C-alpha cells in the first residue's frame, strides 16, 4: 500500500471543474479512519456539491453515508454490517448520485456512465477495448462474441440472440433455433455462422457460460446456476466451465462472488 498524491488542491476547484467524483471502497479500518479524518469530512461534501455527478464504488458508499450524502437513500454497500446502513443494494442511480455495490459492478457503472453521457454504441466499444469479460487474467482468452454480435445493430439475428439470452434453460438446438428464425436448418446454420462467426451450438454454449459466470459472481449455488443456464446437471456445467475458463466454477464463485 502506498499513498497517491494529487498535484492540485481542493481550494483550486470551482463549480463545474469536477464533473464526476467517486469514492473508492476500502477495508473496514481505512474506512473508519477516513470517516474520522477532518480534512476528508470537509472535502468530500464540498466536492460532491461541486460535481455534476458523485457517488461511490463498493464500500465507498459507507463513507458517503457517514457524511450524510446518502440521506433519504436506503443503501448498504457490500462488506458493511447491516446495522450500520439500512438496506442491501447492488447499485443505483438517483439524480446526481451513482453507486456501485461491488468492485466489479463498478466497471459496469462506469460503462453505464459512458452510455448516459454519450451513447450505448460508444459504451459497447469501450467495453470491447477493455476486454471486459477477460478482466481477470486467465479466465477467458477472448472477448465474448455474444456481446460483439449484439453490438451489430443490423444483425439479422439480433432478436434471436436476445431470445437466446432470455431462455438459456430451454432446448437451444439447431432445429429449435432455425424454426424460431423461420429458416431451414441448413440456411440458418450458414447465415448464423456468417453473422456471428460461431456455429449455433458454440454460440449457445458461450452464452450459457457467460451467464453462468455472472450468476456465480453473485454467489449462487452450482445447482441453481446449472439449472438457470441450461447446463444441468452441475457436472455438465463444471466440465464446460473448466474447459472454457480453465478454472472450476466453485473456485471461481468462492474467489469472485460479491456478497
From TrEMBL:
Residues 158-255 form the HTH araC/xylS-type domain. The keyword Ion transport does not apply. The keyword Cell wall biogenesis/degradation does not apply. SMART domains: HTH_ARAC. It holds the Pfam family HTH_18. One of its GO terms (molecular function) is DNA-binding transcription factor activity. InterPro entries: Class_I_gatase-like, Homeodomain-like_sf, HTH_AraC, HTH_AraC-typ_CS, INH-QAR. Keywords: DNA-binding, Transcription, Transcription regulation. PROSITE patterns: HTH_ARAC_FAMILY_1, HTH_ARAC_FAMILY_2. PANTHER family: ARAC-FAMILY TRANSCRIPTIONAL REGULATOR (PTHR43130), HTH-TYPE TRANSCRIPTIONAL REGULATOR RV1931C (PTHR43130:SF3). This is Transcriptional regulator GlxA family with amidase domain. It comes from Mesorhizobium tianshanense.
Amino acid at each position: 500500500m502506498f499513498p497517491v498524491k494529487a498535484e492540485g488542491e481542493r481550494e483550486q476547484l470551482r463549480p463545474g471543474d469536477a464533473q464526476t467524483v467517486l469514492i473508492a471502497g476500502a477495508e473496514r479500518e481505512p474506512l473508519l479512519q477516513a470517516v474520522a479524518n477532518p480534512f476528508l469530512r470537509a472535502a468530500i461534501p464540498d466536492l460532491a456539491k461541486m460535481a455534476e455527478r458523485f457517488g461511490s464504488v463498493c464500500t465507498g458508499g459507507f463513507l458517503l453515508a457517514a457524511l450524510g450524502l446518502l440521506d433519504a437513500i436506503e443503501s448498504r454497500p457490500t462488506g458493511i454490517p447491516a446495522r450500520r446502513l439500512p438496506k442491501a443494494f447492488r447499485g443505483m442511480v438517483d439524480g446526481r448520485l451513482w453507486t456501485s455495490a461491488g468492485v466489479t459492478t463498478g466497471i459496469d457503472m462506469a460503462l453505464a456512465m459512458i452510455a448516459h453521457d454519450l451513447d450505448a454504441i460508444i459504451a459497447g466499444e469501450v467495453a470491447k477495448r477493455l476486454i471486459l469479460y477477460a478482466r481477470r487474467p486467465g479466465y477467458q482468452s477472448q472477448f465474448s462474441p455474444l456481446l460483439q454480435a449484439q453490438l451489430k445493430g443490423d444483425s439479422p439475428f439480433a432478436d434471436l440472440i436476445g431470445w437466446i439470452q432470455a431462455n438459456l434453460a430451454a432446448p437451444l438446438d439447431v432445429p429449435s433455433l432455425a424454426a424460431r428464425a423461420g429458416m431451414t436448418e441448413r440456411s440458418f446454420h450458414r447465415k448464423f455462422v456468417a453473422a456471428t462467426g460461431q456455429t449455433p451450438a458454440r454460440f449457445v454454449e458461450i452464452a450459457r457460460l457467460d451467464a453462468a459466470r455472472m450468476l456465480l459472481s453473485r454467489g449462487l449455488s452450482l445447482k441453481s446456476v446449472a439449472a438457470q443456464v441450461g447446463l444441468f446437471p452441475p457436472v455438465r456445467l463444471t466440465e464446460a466451465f473448466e474447459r472454457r475458463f480453465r478454472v472450476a466454477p466453485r473456485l471461481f464463485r468462492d474467489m469472485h462472488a460479491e456478497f
